Structures are given as C-alpha cells and as structure tokens.
Amino acid sequence: MALVALKNVTKTYAAPEKGGAPIVAIDDVTLDVEAGDVYGIIGYSGAGKSTLVRLVNALEPATSGSIEVDGREITSMPERELRNMRLGIGMIFQQFNLFTSKTVWHNIAYPLTVAGRPKAEIAARVGELLDFVGLAGKARSFPDQLSGGQKQRVGIARALATSPRLLLADEATSALDPETTQEVLALLKRVNREFGVTIIVITHEMDVIQSIATKVAVMDGGRVIEHGDVFDVFSNPQNPSSQRFVATVVKGIPSPAELAVLRERHVGRIVTISFRDGDVSQASVFLELANAGLEFELVYGGINDIQGRAFGHLTLAIRGADAATDAALARIADRVDVTEVS
Q1: pLDDT in tens, 149-179
Q2: Annotation: CATH topology of 2-246
Q3: pTM score
Q4: Cα dihedral sign for 43, 47, 51, 56?
Q5: Which site among 91, 141, 206, 291 is 20 to 30 Å from 280 CA-CA?
Q6: What distance, in Å, lies between the first and last C-alpha atoms of the chain?
Q7: How many CA atoms lie within 13 A of 166 on its CB side?
C-alpha cells in the first residue's frame, strides 16, 4: 500500500499581472510512494519539486486532484486535523531552520513540547536522538557553535522527534560539502533502515539520488516525466531531460565534441559497449576482443553501482583488421549493446 498517493494533482497560482495566465506549478501529477521507500524527486530549478513537498505536508492546498497520506485524504481535511497529521511527517531543510536562540537539546525537543508530551518522555526521546545522530556531547551547544553537518544532524533529530512514518528532505544536502553530504546521506539511510521511516528526497543533485534513493521521479515543468526504480532510470533513461540528469553522474556515449578529442588522441575504431547488471561480464567482452587478435584500450566512460547493481558504458579504441573487428563486435552484440561511434 502506498504511504503517499497523489492522483491527478495540479497546483496553480494566480498570474502576477492582472489578466495574465495563471502559473501552473504542478501539472496533473500522479505518483505513489510505498512505505519503506527512499523516493527521490529530482528536477532543475523551477521544476515544481519543492511545491510538491508543500502539497504532501499540506502547507499549501492543491488546486485539484487527490492526495492521500497514510490512507487519509488530506486535500479537504480541516486545519485542526492537518496539524495532527503533520505530527506523522518530519521535515528537514536546506538551511537547517534551527532556532538560533535555543540549544541543540531544546531544538530537538521543540516538536514534542508543542505536541504537549510529558517532560520525562521528552527528555528520554531527545537523549535517544542525540545518541542516534552522534551529537550527545552537543546538547547544550547553540546552532552557531556547530558545523553545517552538525546542524543538519540536529535538523534530522528534530524531524524524528515525534516518530514520524514519513520524512521529507528538501535539498537537505545542498548547503554541505561533498564529504559532509555523504555523512548526512549515510545517516538518512540508517533512519530508513533502522526506524523504517519512508523518505522523500527533493534534490537537483543526481549523485544524491544515486547514493540513497531506491526509486526516483524526474520532474520538468511541473510534470513527472519519468519515474521508476533508480537503477532502471539511470541505466536506461527514456526522456531527454532524464538523460541530461543521468549524464551528470554517468558517462554515456561520447558527444561529437568529445569524440573529436578522442580521435585526435587515439587510433582505431571507437566503439561504446553498454553493460547492465546481469549481462555478460566485462572480462568476457575483453577476452572476445583479445582472442580475435585485436588491440584495444579504454578511452571513455565508466561503471556505476546503484544498490549493489552495476551498469555503465565503456568506450574503446579498437585496432586490428576490419573483418576481425566486425566479427568480434557481432559476437559481443549478441549479448550486450554495442555502438560504433561514427
């Protein structure tokens, strides 16, 4: 059963100028997020992904369509019920959104205090979360005394305070350096694995999706243009916008400009061989070329790993007789995709 289900959801805003056309931020989106997923939503700036998050936690109302969270329709829910519903949704932000005048302890305790939980329960929960995020020694510190990664750990602890089933992470690593980003992503993986929290990750960074997500939806112009398992979308993107995103982390077939450089540097025929998990091994392909008496070298591309499954594109410069090359490539093409770059 889907923990979050959107059906034909649209969100429009009034035109900034009188008489102008309304602005369509979300355009007929249908999407299911299953319990236990780490679901990435990716798109360029203005694609509508942050608006989608605000619709899921009902910070903004949808113009039309249906949104269900944990089996409850929220588009027509009264504000009092929405407040209770939001206790089951944690939120972490790009700029952390911590109270600078409160200690780490009080920042984490805040949602529990608002919810009216007993002091003993609050103290126990805050202590548990400080240990979980690795900040037990920072309870009395203030946000200005913390690094960016530590601030985001506080943000994650605060988001988990009410034991939500759903966590929304809106560009949660965009303000962090690469090493700290990986630490925060590892922490979110633990949240998903150990607490069973479903996570929706909003980002414009494809490597974040590659690192943490199990499924992904690509947004463009307010629409979901492609979605599915991360491995499937990464290894075989169908939409041009998806292909541009994937190209930021996966080297595919060389562009004309890149091909021109490769031809200057390498002699022979330039061939790209595409691998997917479960296909023939790289070693057997290389052995096929070697047994045909061909010389070859890797000149472009690479292999990526997503959730333990490998895929990628290796571009080779192959030298040898044309007949032998043609025969070897034909045998390889029976098992994997082979593209000769002209």
Answers
A1: 999 999 999 999 999 999 999 998 888 898 9
A2: Rossmann fold (3.40.50)
A3: 0.87
A4: negative
A5: 206
A6: 48
A7: 23
Q: Is the pLDDT of residue 223 over 90?
A: yes
Whether the pLDDT of residue 220 is over 80: the answer is: yes
Instruction: For the chain, give every domain's residue range.
Output: 2-246, 256-340
Would you list the DSSP string of 188-250? HHHHHHHH--EEEEEES-HHHHHHH-SEEEEEETTEEEEEEEHHHHHHS--SHHHHHHHTTTS
- Are 232 and 301 within 8 A, CB to CB? no
Q: Give domain 256-340's CATH architecture.
A: 2-Layer Sandwich (3.30)
Six-digit token pair at 124? 């126990």
Long-range CB pairs of 83-89, under 8 A, 24+ apart, other chains included: 85/58, 86/57, 86/58, 87/111, 87/115, 87/162, 87/164, 88/162, 88/164, 88/165, 88/166, 89/56, 89/57, 89/164, 89/165, 89/166, 89/167, 89/168
